[in-house]
User: Fold this.
Amino acid sequence: MNGVAGRSPGIAVLASLLLLEILAPCSAAARLPRRRLFRVDGADHVQVWRATRGGPFFYRAKLAVDADGAPTAYHPQNTGLDDLRNARGDHGQWVGIVIDASTGRPCVQGPDDPAPGYYVSQTSLENESVSGQCDPRRYVDATQIPYFVLPHVGMRRGKARLGDVAIVVNRANGRVAFAIFADEGPRGRIGEGSIALVARLGIDPDPRVGGVETRTVDYVVFPDSGDGIPLAVDEIERRGAELFAGWGGLDALDAVLPCTALACPPPSRPVRSESVTRPAAPRIPQIRRECRGEATKPSHPRGNRSRP
Assistant:
């Protein structure tokens, strides 16, 4: 289960992005003012914005790797995908591992589970059709599903709900991915995604040493875009492509989170990871409309966590 079983977004998704870049009205994004929505202070200092006309909220941040929900995320001997320290909160309590209510001890997978002997790792978003709390199938598998993480303020001030959809853009290489809000992170931290999401963005997806600490990843979160339940990858991609196109696409993103020397450098070769197999990720079509008057611009580890 260590490999990321995923695939690049389908032809329909890529086609919608391409058509968006060619056909979307120029004026819609060229004059898109923004306002401060909330700020994440603590380990990370990130300003979160929303366009004054409403719609999604957005921010530029790092991208740490989250293994939560993967059947092989954590092992009692610390041989899982991620370090056991990342499954504990600030006070030493388990936050990334399910606790058996009847025993008060961490749930360990049995012979009929996907990864016998490993702990059962949880996500905030759950598949409630799976009744057992200690069943690993109840949670969103980080190696299979591209998901992102928000602190509680993203729900309180941003009005995001578990299951909502976002587009995530790696400004360092131009790669994009659609993702679902599946895990609530600790206060003061923002900029985290599943192994599958990180892999799609061409970044080292190893939870122990991967991710990127520089603020070169853009997140556009669409509140009230989900159903409060886990979604299949196809549905995440379909909804994400439609929402991003309706908002204004890459032109709108450039208008509210402009490129900088750090965030939009020339493309470089993606970091390779020997421990996790990554699917290929698409690049945003490098097409700009002439009316913008711009030249075309080609385009580590987590600390202890605590859930509110």
Remarks:
- Residues 11-67+143-292 form a domain with the Barwin-like endoglucanases fold (CATH 2.40.40.10).
- The CA atoms of residues 169 and 176 lie 5 Å apart.
- The chain has a mean pLDDT of 82.
